[in-house]
Amino acid sequence: IITSVMEAIAFGLEFDRVMLMVSDSGETTLQGKMALGESFGIDPTRFSRAILDESHDAHPDSNAFTIRSVEMYGDPVFEDGWPFLAIPIGQNANPIGVIYADILQSSSKSKDGLNERTQLAANVLADLLDQALLING
Question: Which pTM value belongs to this model?
Fold first, then answer.
């Protein structure tokens, strides 16, 4: 299900890069597991970021995980990627990670930002991920 959502983001919503980040057991870091699309310039399995509290509101991946909401604002995780999107995997269920996606700034798509259709689709995908976690535990 998570891979299907990543594919929907990459191919349906036309994001250049999509990365799955899963939290460690202590919920202190998000660890990269896999990526789709263009290269992030690193092996996703070697990528790790600290999960910060809500006071660090410029970190969309941390906020998506801790606040359990779709994030589209703040500082991008990768400097060359904007606009971006961070979707929690588990909003009402216990969160297990985040799907982070961005558009390369060199792309003509980056100048448009995220339109309303993309923002609505991101929220629907977050709800579907949440339902899948609730149903499948």
Answer: 0.91
